[in-house]
Each structure stands twice: as structure tokens, then as C-alpha cells.
Amino acid sequence: MNVRRAFTLIELLVVIAIIAILAAILFPVFAQAKAAAKGSASLSNAKQTTLATIMYSGDTDDYQVIHAIPFDTTSPADNHRPWTVLIVPYMKNTDIYQDPLSSAFNAYFNPNGTLNKTVNDEYAPRYAYVYQIHSPVLYYGGTDLRSNPGSQTTLGSPAETPLMVADRNMADGGTWWWYGAGFGFSDTYDVGSPYCPPGQYYANPQSLCAAGYLSWGTGSVSGWTSTDIPKGALTAGVAFRKANRGIVTFADGHASTMAPGQLAAGTNWNTTIASGSTVINDQTKYLWDNL
Is 6 helix (H, G, I), strand (E, B) or coil? Predict the structure, then answer.
């Protein structure tokens, strides 16, 4: 006669303890694998966005994507179409504008996905265009500010010239839109460069710095509710979400990740310096120019 023996309480507890230990070991590994996958997808999205801008240049006599174009001449400060709209024909899928490492953000403000003539209906990216290099905003007097796209082939070192960088999420604070004299800027389309002289707001090369920002450093973003470097708090909106590294693409089309210090190379920036105190101390290492 066979007698079936049940688990004792001790044996059951041992099994449960082993399962708990294995789970404690494996769950962080799964989380890391998921984060790595999102990081790879983020890098790919940024690269695809950059390639779309390069394709755009190929169809426009080598000119870079314009930072923003007015489409309502009666109110140029409030109504314009940003670069995100111009490169859509080369992308087809606007989900590419989203960063999997950031919280979900609808590519359209308008639920039906149409583009009406209001700024709130434009595509909202999680990658910002380094317009200060590629389509600088110059001052022509009075309230006349214009975006001036440059030629891609005039860049001195395309492989060392940033074109797109991961930018902050609006959920982290700050204002959505800033209106300048005759020109509008969005906190999500633009980021600040490491160097921006206080009081002048013109960076190197001669271009209006991203509105609402000064140079990198403490207090660099107006209305900011975060102090985290990964969220862009000390880097004028440039986010470093991929293991404390930022997604960066370059004018030659390649994409990479960089630490804050690498992107600020050639300046005196550090995590304690006050915004507006950043200066270029080695122009040969400074990335945010077209040399």
C-alpha cells in the first residue's frame, strides 16, 4: 500500500524562500533589460529623426531644416510651424518623436491628429533640434527676429556637431510656451546650449538662445520643479535619461550617448556653477558651434 506524503510546513517555507530569493535576483535583471531595450529604441528614434532632417536638406539645396516658419503673418509671435512639421513627409510615423525612456506624451495635442493653425496642434517631440547651430535665430532690429537655416556642407566637423538631443519632459515643470518679440519658442522643441551670455541671450555662433533658459548650471530653467540632472534641471533642458547619459545625434547622421560633462566639453560647466557663469575656455573642444 502506497502512502502519499504531503509537504511539511518547513519544506513549504523553504520552497517559498527559494522562489523569493530567485525573484529578488531576477526582477532587477528584468528591469535593467527593459531599460536597456527602451534606451536602444530611444537612440533609434533620435537617429531616424536626424536622418529625416538630412533627407530634408537633400531636397532643399543643402539647407538645414528651418527652426520655425510663420504661417500667420498677422501674428508671427504666436503662430508658426516648427521644424517637426517640416520633416514629417520624410518620417511618415510621428511616434518616432517620442522617447521610450520618458513618460508617454501624445505626438499631437489635438486628439484627432489634425494640424490646425494654432501652436497647440503642432507635433511635440521628446528630442530637441539644436537650432542655434543649424538654423540660428538672428536679430534684424525692432521686433524682427528670423530663423536662418545654414548649409549642411558648411559645417566644419559634422561628426562632432550635435543636431538633436533628448530634451526634458514637460511633466517635470516649467512653462509650455514662451513668446518673444516677433518670434515664438517652445520649451519642448528647443534646449539651451552650455554657453549663453547673461543679458545678451546670444550664444556661439551668433544665435538667440532658447527662450526661458540661460546657459547650463543651477537655475538654468525658469519655472523648473526638478533638480535632477537626468531630467535636464542643470543642463538647460537637455535630458540624460539613459543611465545618466543623454541621447545625442550628430550632423553626419550617427547617434550616441554622452554624459553631461562630455556635452559641455570646452566650458567650465559643473553641477554647482550658477547659470550664466558658464564660459567657453577651449573653443577647440566646444561642440555647440559650426566650426
Answer: coil
